[in-house]
Design brief:
- The structure holds 2 protein chains of 2 kinds.
- Chain A contains 14 helices and 1 strand, in the order αααααααβααααααα.
- Chain A is mostly helical.
- The relative contact order of chain A is 0.14.
- By secondary structure, chain B is an alpha+beta fold.
- Chain B has helices spanning about 5-25, 55-65, 130-140, 160-165, 200-205, 215-220, 295-305, 330-335, 365-370, 375-385, 415-425, 445-460, 470-480, 500, 520-530, 535-555, 590-595; strands at about 25, 35-40, 70, 80, 90-95, 100-105, 185, 190-195, 235-240, 250-255, 290-295, 310-315, 340-345, 345-355, 390, 435-440, 465-470, 485-490, 555-560, 560-570, 570-575, 590.
- Chain B is about 30% helix and about 20% strand.
- The longest helix of chain B is centred in the first third of the chain and has 21 residues, at about 5-25.
- In chain B, β3 (about 70) and β4 form a beta hairpin.
- The two termini of chain B are about 50 Å apart.
- The chains are: A mainly alpha, B alpha+beta.
Chain lengths: ~325, ~600
């Protein structure tokens, strides 16, 4: 296992360099001129040239790329164009609000969707299965914005009129104790995600129930519960694992709509602001970090495969 | 059911219940503190005055910092009064010149910067404001390394300042010890400013947030983090540990704020409205202010309805459920005691022609035809809920030079006349014209308004294609003149007709504010003449001539002057609509007893 991990980490190096090269070319040459963006609409050509020098954009391309690789290696992406804050601070400060919402919401979604998927797969073809599948399809058909608007209006605003207690704040965030502010957004996140996840997990579990070994286990006289929860569940973990683990790196991005509507100062809304104001260093940094997290996510997936399925060799 | 399922269900339920209980609060009125709860509908990009380029940052900057002058809170028409200055200065002639280009501004005494760790010499105690701080702050606005958003207001205006700026080597800060001919501290409390030429609007610039005064110690101490660590002379002090520019700013009363009292006079009906009840009291009137950043309409609206915000605008989608047909509050809102404030904005919306375009820019009949084919009244109803009046000229109501009697013949919707003028333009029924490109924003409302424009032009046979962009891309394409028309709005920086008439001055072509790239030598000559006149008969005469030239040449399809509708909670005192509301919060007060009753 150790050798495998080291080997995979070494493979990651050329991947990171390749991705970095693509991002570098995209932002420095194919996209907008960073000096023009930073100079603003009233800048003279002389001022733009000065800014190009200040940003090091007049240096040879290899030197600039080397500088960018250093930024990637040290997570030091300089300062934001719009508010001059250190980008590493922006990402660090924005990451935690996003995670304070995303982690509990993701965990709740995972627990509930696996539970429900197991239930419906176990009772496949029966009324419970059909009802839940219909509900899942309905949930998938409703736009997430509708969940947000209705959830905020009825649960945060209207409900206190009937019960005399405010269960959820309408919006806001407290960095020192965020939990009361993320519960309603988390519930909405779960509601939005449940339909898709339940259907996917149900399919993955049902696929396994049609395998030969399941028929063999039943033929040997094992109870349906043992067949299901001991054998089928474990074997259906590979596609579930892939689906789940690949989402983890993106949890730090949070979700833009929820963050905007509930006033959570997370990375999702920071990125959208950066896109609207053409804050190129922030956009570049977030794109870079997202790629790195994705690479880390796929590595984690590969390693976890061997844990759930001994057939998978790490050689 | 299986152990796994049971365990998952129990874990999930416990988690939800625990977090739900943690978030419970009793519904009802809030605490008995004199605390303002306000909102910003956009994130605050920073609290450095020289970068306060949008109204959201400008409002927050004004809580911590002060410029030399401010607007009288209650008097209308708007009147400049001293803020950090001791009195209103007058322009004098400089030696060797008859032109009145010199201002001597005397500062108030004993004005202190707030206590802060940056004042090492006095162990963190804020020191007194001096004339050197004025010189430093204005030089900083000109410093190329700072890349100040507000530089445009001093660019070319103060003698020697541009030269100082240009002499700085690239990438380095300016030499703040250098002497500038037009910017000097004559003594501890007197600043001398000499302009390059007479400028009657200059005092207005000295009331803008860009020109607020900052201490050198704070700039040097905090460096690039100065944006988040304001240290000013203003009425409020930021509670940094509780504040985050992306979500919430918490301000408390500045204990060392100078002596400034609530005004004792205003408009004739201000007393009846209760706006003079706090006359003569020391400002600010509240102890604490929380500004929540809420970009979306729904949460802002719901927070106001729950009593958690003291002030809000009315989102378009909630207008009909709030305002009755006679444009007043409906019964339900009145029952809650909510107060509606209405006042015209000092702004103008318009669709500009690119006067350098060979087709629309060179064909006056075409422009007249398009202007007459555009009916602004459905726009006012659909997109502004009736909260606007048709604009006849660029000058809005409330600004000297506006005339409620004036009617622009190109604004009177008339399809038949439009078709006639289109034929005179050489394109009968739109034949041979080709496609006109309209640049717009990609927001849903902007797209809808662009769609309406396209439909209007199609009625006379003109085919318009819309290109939608985000705001930065829109600005870039407009300044690069990559379109034939574009929709915009202009809000007053100061209450003078010059701020609107400069939008047609030839030297202000893109990337300046003359987005139409309109050039007319007669207009330019009258503009320069108007600059040197004080408000009065003569100036009015000149303004009328300028408006007539714009009417004749049709560089714009005029839109609207918008009317602001603001809702205030019944416990909010002293609220009065003020266009230049940078430092309004210091005048506001809370009726604590009324607030504790809730809505």
């Amino acid at each position: 296992m150790g050798a495998y991990i080291i080997r995979r980490l070494l493979y990651v190096i050329p991947i990171v360099i390749g991705v970095s090269l693509l991002l570098f070319l995209l932002f420095n040459y194919l996209g907008k001129d960073p000096a023009l963006v930073m100079a603003g609409k009233h800048a003279t050509p002389e001022r733009i040239a000065e800014i190009r020098t200040e940003l090091g954009l007049d240096r040879p391309i290899l030197v600039q790329f080397g500088d960018y690789l250093r930024q990637v290696a040290t997570f030091d992406f300089g300062r934001s164009f719009s508010n001059r804050q250190l980008i590493s601070d922006i990402i660090w400060n924005g990451m935690w609000p996003s995670l304070s919402l995303a982690l509990p919401a993701f965990s709740m979604t995972l627990m509930m969707s696996i539970t429900i998927a197991l239930m419906v797969a176990y009772f496949r073809g029966r009324a419970l299965d059909r009802i839940i599948v219909i509900l899942c399809v309905m949930g998938m058909s409703i736009p997430s914005l509708a969940f947000i608007l209705f959830g905020q209006y009825f649960l945060a605003y209207k409900l206190p009129e009937y019960i005399g207690i405010e269960l959820f704040p309408i919006s806001g965030y407290d960095m020192s104790f965020p939990w009361p502010y993320v519960i309603l957004p988390a519930i909405i996140w779960v509601s939005v995600s449940l339909g898709t996840d339940v259907r996917f997990f149900r399919t993955a579990i049902l696929d396994e129930t049609h395998q030969d070994y399941v028929r063999t286990a039943r033929a040997k006289g094992l109870s349906e519960q043992v067949v299901f929860f001991k054998h089928v569940l474990k074997n259906s973990m590979i596609p579930i694992l892939t689906y789940v683990v690949i989402q983890i790196p993106f949890l730090i991005m949070g979700t833009l709509l929820l963050e905007n509507f509930f006033g959570i100062p997370g990375l999702g809304s920071i990125l959208i602001d950066a896109l609207n104001t053409e804050d190129l260093p922030v956009i570049k940094a977030v794109a870079t970090i997202s790629c790195l997290f994705l690479i880390a996510g796929t590595l984690m997936t590969d390693i976890l495969y061997s844990v759930v399925d001994p057939r998978v060799s790490l050689k | 059911m299986n152990r796994i399922l049971n365990r998952n269900l129990i874990c999930g339920t416990v988690l939800v219940l625990a977090l739900g209980i943690a978030s419970c609060t009793k519904k009802g009125g809030s605490s008995g503190s004199r605390e303002l709860n306000l909102t910003s509908s956009a994130k605050i990009k920073g609290l450095d005055p020289i970068q306060a380029g949008d109204l959201y940052a400008g409002r927050q900057v004004a809580n911590a910092y002060e410029p030399l002058f401010q607007y009288h809170y209650l008097k209308r028409p708007y009147e400049l009064i001293p803020a950090l200055a001791e009195s209103m200065p007058t322009f004098e002639s400089s030696s060797g010149s008859a032109a009145s280009t010199v201002l001597k501004v005397r500062l108030k005494r004993a004005v202190l910067f707030q206590d802060d760790e940056c004042f090492k010499a006095s162990n963190g105690k804020g020191r007194e404001l001096t004339a050197d701080d004025i010189v430093y702050s204005f030089m900083r606005l000109a410093d190329r390394k700072e890349n100040a958003e507000g530089w445009w207001i001093f660019d070319g205006k103060i003698k020697g300042l541009n030269e100082w700026r240009d002499a700085t080597p690239a990438g380095k800060n300016g030499d703040y010890s250098a002497k500038i001919e037009g910017l000097k501290a004559l003594d501890r409390y007197t600043v001398r400013i000499e302009l390059t030429k007479p400028n009657n609007q200059f005092l207005y610039y000295l009331a803008m947030p860009f020109t607020s005064i900052v201490p050198k110690e704070a700039v040097e101490h905090y460096g690039a983090d100065f944006l988040r660590n304001p240290v000013g002379t203003g009425p409020f002090k930021l509670v940094r540990e509780e504040s985050n520019l992306n979500s919430k700013l918490v301000w408390v009363r500045n204990p060392t704020y100078r002596q400034e009292m609530y005004p004792t006079e205003g408009e004739p009906d201000d007393k009846a409205k209760g706006l003079l009840e706090d006359a003569g009291k020391q400002l600010p009137l509240v102890d604490k202010m929380i500004v929540q950043v809420i970009p979306e309409d729904q949460p802002r609206w719901l927070n106001f309805q729950s009593g958690k915000l003291d002030l809000t605008g009315i989102p378009k989608d909630n207008f009909d459920s709030t305002i009755s047909a006679d444009m007043d509050l409906n019964a339900e809102m009145m029952k809650k005691g909510i107060v509606l404030h209405k006042a015209p904005n000092l702004d103008v919306t318009y669709t500009s022609f690119n006067m350098e375009d060979p087709i629309v820019g060179k064909n006056k009949w075409l422009r007249k035809a398009m202007s007459l084919a555009y009916d602004i009244n459905p726009v006012i109803k659909l997109f502004y809920n009736g909260r606007a009046i048709p604009a006849q000229s660029p000058i809005p109501p409330g600004v000297f030079g506006y005339s409620s009697q004036y009617r622009n013949p190109n604004v009177d919707y008339n399809i038949e006349k439009a078709k006639e003028f289109l034929a005179k333009a050489g394109y009968p029924g739109g034949k041979g014209l080709g496609t006109i490109t309209l640049l717009g924003l990609s927001t849903s409302q902007a797209r809808q308004q662009s769609e309406y424009f396209v439909n209007s032009m199609s009625k006379i046979g003109i085919n318009v294609v819309v290109k939608a962009f985000t705001w930065p891309d829109f600005l870039k394409n407009m300044n690069d003149k990559k379109g034939q028309m574009w929709g915009l709005a202009w809000g007053a920086d100061y209450p003078d007709a010059e701020n609107f008439l400069q939008l047609f001055y030839g030297k202000n072509k893109a990337p300046g504010p003359n987005n139409a790239n309109y050039v007319n030598s007669d207009y330019d000559r009258l503009y320069k003449e108007m600059l040197n006149l004080q408000n009065g008969e003569k100036r009015l005469e000149v303004i009328k001539k300028m408006v007539k030239i714009v009417e004749d040449d049709v560089p714009w399809v005029f839109g609207t002057h918008r009317i602001g509708f603001t809702l205030a909670q019944p416990w909010l005192r002293n609220y009065k609509v003020i266009e230049f509301d940078h430092n309004q919060e210091k005048y506001l007060n809370i009726d604590v007893a009324r607030r504790s009753q809730g809505l």
